[in-house]
């Protein structure tokens, strides 16, 4: 083993440990790894940032923009409006929801497809009085299965296709993944519909309950009165909330038989005002330290009374790469910026026990919000949250409902015919949408998941360093030495299984980047085509079913479904076995 090989293995080992530790963001870890590789001399300085011009990076960015355009134009909602969901049995309900999600995911970003179907599935669960915990993991897994079907369905497919172009001479085309992917997806869906959901608990999860039950909100709502001689007369609502360090929200002001729902932070208190406050009892203490500031009321307020046609209480889930991820309530200033009150936070289906000001939001957290409909919609769009329990926040079909999917279909056709590379075809699609004002430049940039783009740009040079240092050949020789005499299909199982496990622990994108060169070296050592091994990596990297951290789709349903860590591997382990059992024979049949 040379010094360069030892260095690259050491860097990768540290990277994997940091990925699993999950204390730092993936893109930050990848950036540190790239800089370390440059200073160590295994990545040339003039090649350090070539990853950002890689076709895979461009393609992923374009797919994200197009997916957001499809979501916002309303074409999917228009389609779903006429889709009659079966209410008779839970099996047909899961089959309908998962089938539609998988179909959408074949042509959209996985998260985009899930985000469209999540509110619909929760609404179905509520109407049919079935626990959402039986429905949401199958929905998440269906979004991942659908991504196996086409080139644009998931980033690992795009990475593998461009890797093949750089090393074999020709990329996988748009539908080269379909023969294997569609059979695997159908087998996976059949498992989820018949067996998978039965392995999930029927516990009341995030959105099975009424908001007041899930968040225990009634315990924290109180009524106070502003006496005529109060020191708070003339004080603004915002200043009152600051006195309690942001831990108390003024939900309503009763003034002379008039109700002011979700009052502005600039609203001034007047004598006789009755305030409906939300907050822990200890948070209210500063308001009662001096006699005469406020008079405590004795009523317990029904949370449903705090709604009106214009002011609503909704649940919203924190989406992956949301602007509030890692931030606290104090640093966001929801009330000051949007006029929206944060009433409570639920994590993994249970109300958070820590004080609101100390909570740092994570993907999958469910927020209980109160405010005017327009303000809630603006908050969700700006901060990257998904309203999961109030259909008033749906985006209505608008101009572009046919032009956007038509332009996307044109791009798919041009790429599938091989007339231009897929990155050129999809960049053209995005350009047309922007020029036709179907998508604004601001919306296009906002829809790109920049941490994924940065992660790819940083990791691609490291993946190439694995090849240039001979590290992949060393790994391949070690595997071939141990497996001497074993059939090719057994090595395909090994490659796919390792890719699955890595994807469960880290992320599907780095898994594809790091496993592709190893698969190529294995195929070269065996003297066989690289295509079966690259396909095995693509399927394995796109199959993170054992943990909630393996893919953002899994994380997104954790809060609304009230899932624990063990719920994922309970369903995912058998699904992994199904996928390997189906995918390997199909790869042998199609690509050997």
TrEMBL record:
- GO BP, one example? potassium ion transport
> Any keyword Membrane?
yes
Residues that span the membrane, as ranges = 6-21, 28-45, 57-82, 94-120, 140-163, 175-197, 232-254, 400-418, 424-441, 448-466, 486-506, 518-542, 568-591
Q: What Pfam families does its record include?
A: CitMHS, TrkA_C
A GO term from the CC aspect: plasma membrane
Where is this protein chiefly located?
membrane
Q: Where can this protein be found? A: Membrane
What GO molecular functions are on record for this protein? monoatomic cation transmembrane transporter activity
Q: Which keywords does this Swiss-Prot/TrEMBL entry list?
A: Membrane, Repeat, Transmembrane, Transmembrane helix, Transport
Q: Which InterPro entries match?
A: Cit_transptr-like_dom, DASS-Related_Transporters, RCK_C, RCK_C_sf
* SUPFAM superfamilies, alphabetized: TrkA C-terminal domain-like (SSF116726)
Q: How does it sit in the membrane?
A: Multi-pass membrane protein
Residue ranges of every copy of the RCK C-terminal domain listed in the record: 208-293, 301-385
Could you identify this protein by its name?
Putative transporter
Q: Which organism is it from?
A: Granulosicoccus antarcticus IMCC3135
């Amino acid at each position: 083993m040379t010094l360069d090989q030892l260095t690259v293995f050491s860097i990768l080992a540290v990277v994997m440990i940091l990925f699993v530790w999950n204390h730092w963001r993936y893109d930050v870890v990848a950036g540190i790894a790239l800089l370390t590789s440059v200073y160590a001399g295994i990545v040339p300085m003039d090649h350090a940032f070539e990853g950002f011009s890689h076709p895979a990076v461009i393609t992923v960015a374009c797919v994200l923009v197009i997916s957001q355009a499809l979501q916002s134009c309303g074409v999917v909602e228009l389609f779903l409006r006429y889709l009659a969901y079966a209410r008779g049995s839970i099996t047909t309900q899961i089959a309908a929801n998962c089938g539609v999600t998988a179909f959408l995911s074949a042509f959209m970003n996985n998260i985009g497809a899930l985000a469209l179907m999540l509110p619909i599935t929760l609404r179905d669960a509520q109407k049919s009085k079935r626990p959402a915990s039986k429905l949401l993991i199958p929905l998440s897994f269906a979004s991942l299965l659908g991504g196996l079907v086409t080139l644009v369905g998931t980033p690992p497919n795009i990475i593998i296709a461009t890797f093949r172009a750089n090393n074999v001479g020709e990329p996988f085309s748009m539908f080269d993944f379909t023969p294997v992917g569609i059979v695997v997806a159908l087998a996976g869906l059949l498992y989820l519909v018949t067996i998978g959901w039965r392995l999930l608990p029927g516990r009341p999860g995030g959105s099975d309950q009424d908001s007041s039950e899930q968040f225990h909100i009634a315990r924290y709502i109180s009524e106070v009165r502003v006496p005529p001689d109060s020191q708070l007369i003339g004080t603004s609502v915002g200043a009152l909330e600051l006195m309690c360090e942001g831990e108390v929200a003024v939900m309503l002001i009763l003034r002379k038989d008039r109700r002011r729902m979700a009052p502005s932070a600039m609203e001034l208190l007047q004598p006789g005002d009755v305030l409906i406050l939300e907050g822990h009892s200890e948070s209210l203490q500063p308001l009662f330290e001096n006699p005469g500031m406020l008079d405590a009321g004795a009523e317990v307020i029904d949370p449903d009374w705090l709604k009106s046609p214009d002011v609503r209480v909704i649940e919203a889930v924190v989406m992956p790469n949301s602007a509030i991820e890692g931030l606290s309530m104090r640093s966001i200033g929801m009330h000051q910026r949007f006029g929206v009150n944060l009433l409570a936070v639920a994590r993994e289906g249970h109300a958070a026990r820590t004080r609101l000001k100390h909570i740092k939001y994570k993907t999958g957290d469910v927020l209980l919000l109160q405010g005017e409909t327009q303000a809630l919609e603006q908050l969700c769009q700006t901060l990257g949250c998904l309203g999961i329990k109030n259909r008033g926040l749906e985006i209505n079909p608008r101009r572009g409902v046919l032009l956007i999917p038509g332009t996307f279909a044109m791009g798919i056709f041009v790429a599938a015919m091989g007339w231009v590379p897929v990155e050129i075809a999809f960049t053209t699609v995005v350009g047309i949408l922007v020029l036709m004002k179907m998508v604004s430049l601001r919306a296009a940039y906002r829809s790109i998941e920049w941490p994924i783009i940065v992660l790819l740009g940083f990791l691609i040079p490291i993946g190439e360093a694995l090849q240039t240092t001979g590290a992949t050949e060393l790994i391949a020789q070690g595997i071939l030495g141990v497996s001497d005499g074993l059939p090719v299909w057994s090595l395909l199982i090994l490659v796919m299984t390792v890719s699955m496990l890595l994807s469960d622990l880290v992320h599907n994108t780095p898994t594809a980047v790091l496993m592709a060169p190893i698969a190529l070296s294995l195929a070269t050592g065996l003297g066989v085509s690289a295509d079966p091994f690259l396909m095995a990596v693509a399927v394995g990297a796109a199959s993170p079913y054992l943990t909630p951290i393996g893919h953002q789709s899994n994380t997104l349903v954790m809060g609304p479904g009230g899932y624990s860590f063990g719920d994922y591997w309970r369903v995912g382990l058998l699904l992994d076995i199904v996928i390997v059992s189906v995918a390997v024979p199909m790869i042998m049949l199609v690509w050997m």
